[in-house]
Amino acid sequence: MKKVITYGTYDLLHHGHVALLKRAKALGDYLIVGVTADGFDKERGKLNVSQSLAERIENVRQTGIADQIIVEEYEGQKISDIEKYGVDIFTVGSDWVGKFDYLSEYCQVVYLPRTRGISSTVLRASAKPVLKLGILGVDSVAERFYTACKAVSGIEAHAVFDADPQRLNKFCRGKSTLERRESAEDIYEGCDAVFINTPANEHYEQIIAAIKAGCHVICNPPIFLSVAQAEECYRLADEAGLELFEGIKTLYFPAFEHMLLLIKSGLIGTVKDIDVSCSQIPEQMEQVSKNKYMGSLYDWGPIALLPIIKMYESQCESSELISFQKEEFSYFTRGFLRYPNATASIRVGKGMKVEGELVITGTKGYLYVPAPWWLTEYFEIRSEDLRQVKKYYFNYEGDGFRYMIYNFLHSIHAPERTSVQHTRQEILRATTLMEKFHKGDCKVLEL
């Protein structure tokens, strides 16, 4: 018996897929079809898949062409499958010519011609309208966000505004399809959503304006500076049927998601302490330091609090914040947090540098993420015996913004398929600590 194997996502299965499967089956006597897992697609940066793994497997099964269906879950699995199932021929569409030549060492490799004029991408585009997005406030973050939008189907950066004309001019250069707006009030016209990328003290009024204009909101953290602001904005968003989304990209990295799952499975026991640090020294530090709302805790606080809020489900019992400041700008803040039967500490710097690592200590061991932990792609689980260190690596594409944008879209169109985004309760717990700092409830030391 001659065995053939092929792989694909098979999203929104169409006649092009079916034709390719028939050609694959004709190459031998027994066809094995590998359907990519949701997690594997995300790790490869393929974030435009509309259907779940179960739906895609069922679609392939109903064609009656496949003799066996398996799930592709990780890079390198193809070699393992070929050897495991005694495969004679590996085949895939001709748009991958040369990509899988390395498999010829294990079996025959055949590239099949694809059916022209049809694709899942086209079907997805026609299934629902593209979300037009405005960008409010430009800098290097907005630049990366704009680039990431191109990697996620269903969203399009449509308009942009920044209060600094020179900065706006620079951002718009080479972006002919992006409409430049004359004021912040104009950014909502013709847009379905807005990315708010301004200093923290401007968020509340801008979120209110966006909701009143009928726009979904994705906002850079901290999204709120008080619990009262948060409750009002959520109420207005609910009444308008709009999504209000905090844009912490770290939360959606494949490695961070797996890290949370492993910890919650009890691999390091019960979490008792978390130590987290983040810092940055901007190139234009002198200009940045003129706005206190770009200081250490305003800039890094929600990100530093992220693993703490995710690990500890209760409200913080007590906290102490110490901040090194000069002319009201916070260059470095240290926080000590007490939870029921657990502790945590944060160190955040803007203009001062600290090792940006994350350590989560449990009763059976600890999890270590090296700097910069907020760009999580690798972590270790350690115990007393260093010979038993378990190492985990999960790739991500681009700089990570595409995963956050993907989840933002799903929170609007298919909330049941969203990933591990912040719950409102978690955001409110983080906001409580941010509000404490914002009101000046911290010890200030002169820099």
Notes on the protein architecture:
With 447 residues, this protein is α/β, with parallel strands linked by helices. It is built from 14 helices and 20 strands. It has helices at residues 15-26, 38-43, 53-63, 77-85, 120-127, 140-149, 165-172, 203-212, 227-240, 254-264, 285-288, 296-311, 401-413, 424-438; strands at residues 3-8, 30-36, 68-72, 89-93, 108-112, 131-136, 155-161, 179-180, 193-196, 216-219, 244-246, 271-280, 318-326, 329-339, 342-350, 358-362, 366-369, 378-382, 390-393, 443-446. Strands 19-18-17-16-12-15-14-13-20 form a 9-stranded mixed beta sheet, with helices on one face. Strand 6 (131-136), helix 6 and strand 7 (155-161) form a beta-alpha-beta unit. Helix 12 runs antiparallel to helix 14. The longest helix is centred in the last third of the chain and has 16 residues, at 296-311. The radius of gyration is 24 Å and the shape is globular. The model has no long low-confidence stretch (mean pLDDT 92).
